[in-house]
Amino acid sequence: MSIAMLESCELQQPSFENQSCVEAAPSRTSQPETAPSDSPLTSVTTAQMFARRRPPAWLLPGMLRQHQAAVLLGPSRCLKSSIAIDLAGALATGGTFLGQFAAERAFRVGFVAGEATRDVAVDLTVRWASANGTELESLERLTWSFDLASLDGPANLRRLSDWIERHKLEVVLIDAADLLAPTRRGAAAQLRDLVRCIQNAGATPIFCCPLRKEPKPRPLGTADLAGDPCDAIARQWILVNRREAFVPGSGAHRLWLTYGGSGAVGDQLGVDIDEGAAGDAWQVTPRDLASIRAEEADQIAADQAEHLRWKLRAVLKRVDPLLATKLKIRELSGMNGGKFAATWDRMVADGEIVPIRPRYAAAAQFGEPCYRLADGAEKKEASRVHSPLADDNDELQDRPEKNEPRSPLPSDEPGFVTLTCAELLALDEAEQKKAPPSPVPTPRQRPRQLPKKKKRRR
Fold this sequence. Notes:
Layout: H1 3-12, H2 16-24, H3 46-51, E1 58-60, E2 64-65, E3 70-74, H4 80-93, E4 96-97, E5 101-102, E6 109-112, H5 118-132, E7 142-145, H6 154-167, E8 171-175, H7 184-200, E9 204-210, H8 222-226, E10 236-242, E11 252-261, E12 267-274, E13 283-287, H9 289-318, H10 326-333, H11 337-349, E14 353-355, H12 358-361, E15 371-373, H13 375-380, H14 388-398, H15 421-434
Parallel strand pairs: 3-9, 3-10, 6-7, 6-8, 8-9
Antiparallel strand pairs: 1-2, 4-5, 10-11, 11-12, 12-13, 14-15
Helix pairs in contact: 4-5, 6-7, 9-10, 9-11
C-alpha cells in the first residue's frame, strides 16, 4: 500500500473529539421546557383595583390617617411631649389639636411613657384640660401606662399587645425618648417590631421621638427625617422646631410645625404656645405663613434700625461735643444719606440727640449747631462723654436767664387778651427794635452807581 493511500484512509476516519462535541451539543429540533401552569403572581385589573378602593379613615382629617404609623419628631426641649399630650387629649375627647385640627371623632387612646415622665404628664394634662375647659373625669377614653421600662424583647411586646387588646385601644401614642436603643440600627429595629405589634393588635401607632441633632431655628423637612431612625417606619409625620430661641422666664415658645405623609396633604404653619411665666398655663395660637413672614420682616427692620442707632450713639460718645456737627457725625458713622437721615430724624424725635446751645456752637466750624446724647441715652449706654465744656454747658442750661425780655401781654388773665391801639403800636415798635438788621441792604444803603461813560467812535 502506498503512502498516499494511507494518508487518505486517515483523513476518512472520524475524530473522537469532534464526535463527543457533536453528541454534547443540543439539538436544534428539541422542544423548550414548558412553564408551570400555576403562577405565584396574581393579576388585578384596573376596574377591580378601583372596586376594592375604600375611603380613607382619618384621625385628624387632612393631617393624620388611621392604621398608618406616624412620627412626632423634633429636637430636645422643643415641647414634643407637651404637643403629644395635646394630641392625645384631642383624639380622646374629639376636640381640636393645637387649636386648629379637629378630630374625626373620639377615639380610645393609650399613652405609653417611662416612669420619669409621670409627673410631667400629670402637670401637662391638668394644664391642657384647664385651657380647653375639659373635666379630668371626662377623659375616660385616655389610658396611661408608665410601667414599660424597655421596648425591646418579645416579653415586652406581648405585654403591650395584651394591654392594647384589654382596653380596646384604637390609637397608641408612645413617648419613646427614654425607651429606644442608643444606636440608630437598634432603634430602627425596635420601632419596626413595635409598629408590627401595635398594628396586629388593631391600633394606630404614633411615636414621639427626639431628633438626634440640634438644628438652628428653622422649619424642618423630610431631609431631617431621612437621617433619623424613625424614617424606617414613618408613613406620616409631624415635625416640630423653634422659630426663635427660647427666653428663660418668659414662658413663650415660637415654633414651626410641618406635617405630611403618604395619605395627607403636607403643609407648614407656625404655633405660638404660652405656658406663662410660672409654667401653669397652656395657650396655643396657630399662625399662618403670611403673618410670620411679615413679623420676621418687621423684626429684621427693627434690628437694622437699632444697629444704626447704636452706631450713632457710639460716634456721639467719642466725638468732641464742640465738633459734633451733623456733617461730622455722618462722616464718622460711615452711613449713606438715606440711612443716616432716617436714623437721625428718629433719634432727634425720640429725644436721644439734643442740640448744644448756640453760644457754644459758635466755636464749631462754620457756625453749625452741635449735638450730643441726651441724659437718658447716656444712661442707657452706661457711658457719658465727660468734658469741661459739656459740663459747663449743662450748668448754663439749668441756670435761668436774667435779662430775658418779658412779653407785655398779660399771661395770668383768663380768656382772650384785650389790647388798645396804643398798646398794639408800642408792641410793634418793641418787636422791630429787637429784630436783627437785615443782611440785604436797602436801596438807601446801597452805594450810588455812576452812569457808564459812552465810548467815542473814531
